[in-house]
Amino acid sequence: MEGYTRQLARFAVHSRPGDVPSEIRHEGTRALVNWIGLPINACRHDTTERAIAAFAEFSGPRQASLLGRSEKLDIFKAAFINCIASCIADYDDTHLATVIHPTGPVASTILALAEHRKIAGSDFLHALILGVEAQCRLARALAVAPAKCDAAWFLTGITGGIGAAIAAARLLGLNEQQMVWAIGAAAARASGTRETHGTMGKNLVPAWTAEEGLQSAFLARQDFTTSDTILEGPRGLGHLYTREANFPALIAGLGEHWELTQNAYKPFPSGIVTHGAITGALEIAQEWRPDPGAIRRVELEVHPWCLHLTGWREPRTALEATFSVYHWVAVALIERRIGIRQFSDTCVADPLVVALRDRVEARPNEAFTRDEAMVRVRLSDGRLLERHVAHALGSSERPMDDAALSAKLHDLADGVIGECAAGLLAERCWNIERTPDASVIVAAACGGGEG
C-alpha cells in the first residue's frame, strides 16, 4: 500500500478548483473573511512591533506587505509577521475537533506569495482550502481517538507548516514528488508547546509555521529531498507526537468529506473553550441586566478542557486573559458585549472586572461537550439567574453568518485602515474566486496603513 504522505501529496497536486463543491469554496471564503482583519488590527501591537524590530534589519528584498502598514519585508518574514499579528487576540478560527487554528499559517503564506507572483483568485482560494484541509486531517490523525496526543503539544505548531507548505507548493506548480518533499521539509521543523500560552511566545508557534511552510515549498521546487514517509514512517511525525496515530484519517474520503466544515469562527477574542461560558454570561447579562455590584457569586460548569486550557485565575495582561474563562465571564456580565475593544490590558486591570472575576467559581463536568456550559449568577437579594448553553455562539451548531463575519472584519479593520478601505477589503475577499489577481486583497488591506 502506498504511504499516507504520498497519498495526501497526490490529492493536493491533482485536485482542481472545480472538484471542490461550491459550499466548500464558500466556506473557504468565509475563513478568509474571518481572518483578514486580524493581522490588520494587531499590526501595531507591542508583540508585532517587537517582532518587526528583531528582523526588519536583516530582511531580504522588500517583496511582501505587512498588512495594515506601508512597510514590506521579504516574503518569508512578511508571512511570519502577518501570522504572528493574526493570532495575538486569539480571535482566529478553530477546528473544533482538534482545537487547531488552521487559516493563519496558510493565508499568511499564500498572501506573501501572491505579491511575489501573480495568482488568480480561484487558485488562491483552492490552495487555501487544500492547506487548511491537510492541517485539520493531520491534527485529527494525531489527536482524535483512537489517537492519543499529550495536551501539552500546541498542535497548530505541528500541523501548520505542513498545511502552509501544501498550499504554497500547489501555487508554485510542484509535482507529486516535490509535494512529498515539501511536506517532509515542513514536518522536519514541526513543533509547538502550550507552555508559551499567555505570552508573546504563543504567537511565535503559528508564525514559525507560516515561514517554514513557504520555505519548504521553495526547497522542494529545487528538488531538495526529504523522507517519502515523513508522516507515517517509524520515526516520522505521527509516531513522534502521538500514540496510536490514526493515519487513515489523513486520506479517508479525500475530496468527498471536508474537515473545513468543522471549522468555527469566533465571535469573542478568547480561547474557543471559553465560548460556552461567555455565551451563557452574555445571555444572562442581556436578558436580566443584573447590576455587577449586586452579583454575590457566579458558578460555572464547563468541559474539563475549558479549565485545562483557560483556567488562568488572575491574568495580568490581555495576552494572559485570553486563557482565563474567569476574566471573560466577568467582562461579559459587566460590558454585556464582547469584541476586540475588550481585548486590552486596561480591561484586565479594571477594578470592576477584577472584583467580579474573583467571585467567579468554575468546576469541570465530564459529561459536557467542549462548548457546553452552565452559568449560574447568584444575586445579593437571593435571586438565581441561570442559563444552560448546549452549544456556544460561534460553534458549528450556532455559527457566525456571512453578515456577522463582515461586521467582525469592519470591527477589526476600520480603526486601522478606515471604513472605506475595510469595505473594499471585505468586497474583494467575498469575491476572491472571481478575482484575476489575488494581490488586490493586500492592496486593500494596506490601503489605510500609516507606515
Describe what you observe in this structure.
The chain has 2 domains: 4-265 and 400-445, Orthogonal Bundle (2-methylcitrate dehydratase PrpD), CATH 1.10.4100; 272-389, 2-methylcitrate dehydratase PrpD (60s Ribosomal Protein L30, Chain: A, 2-Layer Sandwich). The chain is built from 19 helices and 8 strands. The chain has 451 residues and is of the alpha+beta class. It is 50% helix and 8% strand. 57% of the residues are buried.
Throw out a few tags for this protein.
globular; 8% strand; 451 residues; 50% helix; alpha+beta; 2-methylcitrate dehydratase PrpD; 2 domains; 4-stranded mixed beta sheet; 60s Ribosomal Protein L30, Chain: A; two-stranded antiparallel sheet; 8 strands
Topology readout:
Layout: H1 4-14, H2 22-41, H3 46-55, E1 64-65, E2 72-73, H4 75-86, E3 94-95, H5 103-116, H6 121-143, H7 155-171, H8 176-187, H9 201-221, H10 237-241, E4 263-264, H11 275-288, E5 295-302, H12 304-310, H13 318-321, H14 325-335, H15 345-349, H16 351-357, E6 360-364, E7 373-379, E8 384-389, H17 402-417, H18 419-430, H19 440-445
Parallel strand pairs: 5-6
Antiparallel strand pairs: 1-2, 3-4, 5-7, 7-8
Helix pairs in contact: 1-8, 2-4, 2-6, 2-17, 2-18, 3-4, 4-5, 4-9, 5-6, 5-7, 5-9, 6-7, 7-8, 7-9, 8-9, 11-14, 14-16, 17-18
